[in-house]
Amino acid sequence: MALALYYHPLASFCWKALIALYETEIAFEPRVIDLSKPEQRAELAALWPFAKFPVLYDRAREQAIPESSIIIEYLTQHHGSPLIAQDPELAREIRLLDRFYDLYVHEPMQKIVGDKLRPEGKHDAHGVAEARTQLETAYALIDRQMATRRWAAGDTFSMADCAAAPALYYGNRVAPLGRYQNAAAYLERLHARPSFARVFSEAQPYLPMFPG
Q1: pTM for the full model?
Q2: Which of 38, 116, 180, 198 is deepest in the core (most CB within 10 A)?
Q3: How far apart, in whole angstroms, are the C-alpha atoms of residue 184 and residue 163?
Q4: How high is the pLDDT of residue 120?
Q5: Cβ-based neighbours of 136, under 8 Å, separated by 6 or more
């Protein structure tokens, strides 16, 4: 098989890449990496020295592709994925929304989760408060957008939705969507999407490990 994905089923950015692969039915070899095992960490670091996943490896091109957004760009360029529109205006909006969900939902969510894992006396209450404020701002914007949209960029499922699914799922775990009903309804649609449902099902054995 030409493609291999190095990932962990609990990792949120890995969900983004997996959703893209399942959505487009592109065949790949799943390589689950446990970073606590030195030999597996070394295997990943041989492809990407930072030893962060996901990493896609294309055996035919002998090329390693890190970072979830770049993986989806690569699938679009070389494997016919339709997750980034051909229309340049819509493609730019999809890329903007992809960055929005990564930077303004995913990142503050990870800040809150990371703080839960800190040892006693090392917590960052100020940073967590800032992250929660940022999530509230993002939720309000998503709620306005999703009042008139089915998917992040309109009527068609795209890379932006691949980014939104893990960001909103885990975000809702640590900072519930609550009064943002349009955003909550969007998350329900994402859950019902077969690609995300498959990723979520595969993550079930690992979800009790999530500290949120």
Answers
A1: 0.95
A2: 180
A3: 16
A4: 87
A5: 175
